[in-house]
């Protein structure tokens, strides 16, 4: 078996240290384990092709939309529509949408909802997760059951709608926040992390006279930064992406979140009655809806996810799996 | 999860089962435990209250499915609820006689079935491929790229598809330049089921692979080594070690998918319903929406919603029971 040193695969593997027998790696970080044979060439090519296809399927649309949003009118006319190869950069589409008007307003609303909502959700979820993280405390089992039961029963759209409107939340941005503020799945994920904090640590803090709140903020939270970051991202993305709740509950144009504007602005030509109400296309009267402007709205909608993403991405697997396994 | 101290103190002659619940600090009075634990209760209270208002209250509110609910007989929804007339199963009778409802049920079930066959196995395949990529850097790059669309909203996903495959999109544009007649992908009711599945795959393929990747990394590498030493080739190792290692996760996700058989997602269908027409794109969720909120038939919409919830619950309980029979853990294993 000579193949294993060459590190087969679509690209050359990282150089292997040949010498000292390291402890057996759980994951193959630096090359193929000795016992694994080398895959056939056709298999390797097939895998490389599939992966390249997947990466392209994500990156090509993103790239095309980005380039089109930055293209000048002439470039778009020459291409006959979407542009793939950038020639000249023209940021005027972005200047247009950010110089006031519905898109600017919607970005502001969505930002507000995202920041406010994520804060509310994280605070409430962390508190509840800590409150439930002590097996044996009063009503622990009952409370946990109360939270977990929500996985099995579904409230239904009509009664939810009536409750939200009955509380007077219709056409208020709180209707985008409060009904979806608690994700029990996220709660279970955080709780699992909290339960992994060594009990001795908590006990010693208690002996030193710390109350539960202080233990949470001073000891448990600093140890759980990774999971808080991931759950925070989940919540933030959820609020930023909220569309259907806005269709249900928001009536006035100046409270539309960005997804709602994106839909009426770009998809509406295809599906004008989507909201059930007649939408006066926001922005259409204010400036001509050129393709570049439309694509700029798409990019603005994408950007927050793309920006936050790299910071928390490395925690995904850990956070998601802990919750799934321990839950 | 077990507190040894409490069990030992029981006289062994007693035939009652030992107390399941571990009591922290032995047998203290409830009041003492309350004094000790009240901060924990207070911390969980706000979240519990929100769930009460926005989850449990609407769940109870489903009883309006048995009412001729009319929002105008009262000043607010509660008042209207108290003043509305009870009509027993009238809404359900009307619902089950409504051919549109059965259209929606059929569409929902076909989409679920289609996605079960053409979507469900893909994340497993992707995880297997990724897992076999030796270069950590390449694997990391591919993973970060394919996870990304999961964080896009449905509005964005549909927008991207329109811009790529729509009448004025990139593909149509290229085909026109090549002198071809562009395909009608985004508005064709006949292929709508393929389109929504493709969108779902684009959005969640990478994300779905995460849990399988984790399961793969938990498989004992020594098993592979031993199998290789015994002469098992690549495919035999896949068949006899990898797939059995993934089995619990596959069963778990399959159950969850089956329990969700009646919900294929709101936004994706609301967004495209007009473009392809109601016949193909009406699913149960959109049916509820259009019956209730658009055409104000609250009772009928609530009945459809309740039907969906009850059948969904029955499905998940059944699937889980089957999983237990098969010796798998299922969703809510007895802990």
Automatic annotation (TrEMBL), chain A:
Gene Ontology cellular component terms for the protein in this record: plasma membrane
Keywords annotated in UniProt: Cell membrane, Membrane, Transmembrane, Transmembrane helix, Transport
Family matches, as InterPro entries: MetI-like, MetI-like_sf
Name of the featured protein: Carbohydrate ABC transporter permease
Compartment(s) where it occurs, according to its Swiss-Prot or TrEMBL record: Cell membrane
Membrane disposition: Multi-pass membrane protein
Main subcellular location: membrane
UniProt organism field: Micromonospora craniellae
Lineage, broadest ranks: Bacteria, Bacillati, Actinomycetota, Actinomycetes, Micromonosporales
Pfam families in the record: BPD_transp_1 (PF00528)
Family statement drawn from the similarity comment of this UniProt entry: Belongs to the binding-protein-dependent transport system permease family.
Annotated region (Disordered), positions in chain: 1-35
Listed GO biological process terms: transmembrane transport
TrEMBL record, chain B:
Predominant subcellular localization, coarse grouping: membrane
Stored SUPFAM superfamilies: MetI-like (SSF161098)
All residue ranges annotated as the ABC transmembrane type-1 domain in the record: 105-319
Superkingdom per UniProt: Bacteria
Entry's localization field: Cell membrane
GO biological process: transmembrane transport
InterPro entries given in the database record: MetI-like, MetI-like_sf, UgpAE/MalFG_permease
Family: Belongs to the binding-protein-dependent transport system permease family.
Protein name as annotated: Sugar ABC transporter permease
Originating organism: Micromonospora craniellae
């Amino acid at each position: 078996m000579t193949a294993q040193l060459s590190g087969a695969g679509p690209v050359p593997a990282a150089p292997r240290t040949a010498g000292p027998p390291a402890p057996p790696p759980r994951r193959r970080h630096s090359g193929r384990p000795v016992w694994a044979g080398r895959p056939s060439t056709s298999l390797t090519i097939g895998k490389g092709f599939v992966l390249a296809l997947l990466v392209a399927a994500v990156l090509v649309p993103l790239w095309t939309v980005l380039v089109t949003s930055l293209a000048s009118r002439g470039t778009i006319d020459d291409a006959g529509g979407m542009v793939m190869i950038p020639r000249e950069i023209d940021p005027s589409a972005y200047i247009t949408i950010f110089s006031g008007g519905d898109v600017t307003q919607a970005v502001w609303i969505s930002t507000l909802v995202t920041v406010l909502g994520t804060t509310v959700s994280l605070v409430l979820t962390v508190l509840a997760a800590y409150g439930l993280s002590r097996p044996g405390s009063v009503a622990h089992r009952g409370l946990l059951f109360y939270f977990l039961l929500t996985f099995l029963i579904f409230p239904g759209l009509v009664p939810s709608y009536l409750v939200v409107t009955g509380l007077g939340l219709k056409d208020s941005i709180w209707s985008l926040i409060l009904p979806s503020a608690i994700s029990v799945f996220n709660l279970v994920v955080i709780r699992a992390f909290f339960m992994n904090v060594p009990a001795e640590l908590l006990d010693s803090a208690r002996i030193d006279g710390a109350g539960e709140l202080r233990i949470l903020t001073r000891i448990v939270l600093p140890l759980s930064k990774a999971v808080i970051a991931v759950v925070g991202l989940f919540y933030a993305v959820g609020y930023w992406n909220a569309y259907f709740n806005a269709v249900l509950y928001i009536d006035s144009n100046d409270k539309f979140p960005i997804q709602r504007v994106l839909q009426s602005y770009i998809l509406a030509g295809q599906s004008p009655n989507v909201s059930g109400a007649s939408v006066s296309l926001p922005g259409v009267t204010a400036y001509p809806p050129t393709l570049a402007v439309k694509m700029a709205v798409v990019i603005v909608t994408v950007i927050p996810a793309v920006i936050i993403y790299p910071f928390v991405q490395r925690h995904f697997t850990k956070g998601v799996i802990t919750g799934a396994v321990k839950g | 999860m077990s507190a040894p101290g409490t069990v030992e103190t029981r006289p062994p002659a007693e035939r009652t089962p030992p107390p399941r619940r571990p009591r922290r600090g032995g047998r203290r009075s409830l009041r003492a435990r309350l004094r000790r634990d009240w901060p924990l209760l207070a911390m969980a209270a706000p979240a519990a209250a929100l769930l009460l208002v926005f989850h449990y209250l609407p769940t109870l509110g489903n009883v309006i499915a048995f009412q001729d609910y009319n929002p105008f007989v009262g000043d607010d929804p509660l008042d209207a609820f108290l003043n509305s007339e009870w009509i027993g199963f009238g809404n359900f009778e009307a619902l089950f006689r409504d051919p549109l409802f059965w259209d929606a049920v059929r569409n929902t079930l076909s989409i679920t079935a289609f996605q079960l066959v053409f979507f469900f196995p893909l994340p497993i395949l992707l995880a297997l491929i990724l897992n076999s990529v030796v270069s950590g850097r390449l694997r990391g790059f591919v993973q970060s790229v394919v996870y990304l669309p999961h964080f896009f909203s449905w509005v964005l996903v549909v927008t991207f598809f329109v811009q790529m495959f729509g009448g004025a999109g990139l593909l149509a544009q290229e085909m026109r330049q090549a002198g071809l007649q562009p395909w009608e992908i985004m508005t064709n009711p006949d292929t709508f089921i393929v389109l929504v599945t493709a969108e779902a795959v684009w959005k969640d393929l990478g994300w779905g692979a995460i849990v399988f990747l984790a399961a793969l990394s938990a498989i004992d590498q020594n098993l592979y080594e031993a199998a290789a030493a015994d002469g098992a080739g690549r495919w035999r190792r896949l068949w006899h070690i990898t797939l059995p290692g993934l089995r619990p996760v596959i069963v778990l996700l399959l159950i969850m998918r089956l329990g969700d058989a009646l919900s294929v997602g709101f936004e994706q269908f609301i967004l495209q319903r007009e473009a392809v027409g109601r016949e193909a794109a009406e699913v149960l969720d959109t049916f509820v929406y259009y019956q209730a909120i658009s055409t104000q038939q609250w009772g009928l919409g609530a009945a459809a919603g309740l039907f969906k919830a009850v059948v969904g619950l029955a499905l998940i309980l059944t699937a889980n029971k089957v999983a237990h029979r098969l010796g798998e853990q299922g969703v809510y294993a007895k802990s």
